[in-house]
Each structure stands twice: as C-alpha cells, then as structure tokens.
User: Fold this.
Amino acid sequence: MLGRTSPPPDPSTLSIKRLMVASEGRPIAYPVVVKAMELARPEKAEIFVMTTARVWGTSLGFPNPGLQPSRKEWTEQRLIARQAVESFEKAGFDCYAVVLATRRPRKRMLQEAKHRGIDAIVMGCDRDRGLIGDFMWSHEPYRVARSAQIPVYLVPLDGTT
Assistant:
C-alpha cells in the first residue's frame, strides 16, 4: 500500500503487440488516447479498451441487486468504451472493448491483461495523493501500476503527477 512504483521502461525498448487502455470508470481522455497511439504505432499493436462499472459491495456477505451498477452507469461505461474504440479505429488500429462490473478493478484489470496477453497498460490518473488517496476509487491507476508485472503508463489528467 505504501510502495511507490518505478517509472515504466522507455517505450522504444519494448515490443508492444497488444496494448490495454483501462479506466476505472472515468472517461478516457484525449491525452490517454494519444499516449496509447504513440505506444501502439511502432508495432501496429492491437488495442484492448476496458472500463469498469462499480459494484458497491455486498449486503451481509451476499450479493445484492441494489448494489450493482445501474442502467445509467452501464450506459455511461459503454459510451466511454465505444468512443475510445471509434477513436482508435479512425486512426487505423484494430481495437475492441469490454465493460465489466467489479468491486476490485485492479484485480480484474490485471486478470484480463494476463488472460489476453497484454504487453502494456495505459491509464489516465489524477495526482498521487499518497496514503489518503489509496482509499479513493480514483486512485486505482496507482494500485494497478504497483501490482502489475507489465509496464503501466500513467497519463496525468490534471497537469501534475
């Protein structure tokens, strides 16, 4: 929880054939799309977009339908994924997307990356808030970067890191 991540390797030293663009629910911003295209361009990598809809927990240890994502949340996430896929396809990349509901996005993103043979992950992030931020849903990109066995490129969305 307190560990810091080392910066990812220089993209020119990697051979990226499959790239994941992931979001814990926030819109996939233009700088994230640009960074993903920069990483995917040398090898004409296949791009996989994954967004998550938040499951709000359990009720007395049992899944509860009231805690599942609402129709509105599902629709928002599908729209985010569709817009990202359209951006990548317009640029000439092979791209596909999935929207999943989970309480633990970090775990699910890393499972999907391993299952699909992903070489690197790109995520948008807010500034690092340290220990306090680790309790926030928006701090998920840093948790992914700490846990991943593959390079994770975090793109700051608020102008700072």
Notes: DSSP finds five helices and five strands in the chain. The mean pLDDT is 87. Strands lie at 18-23, 46-54, 95-102, 120-125, 152-156.
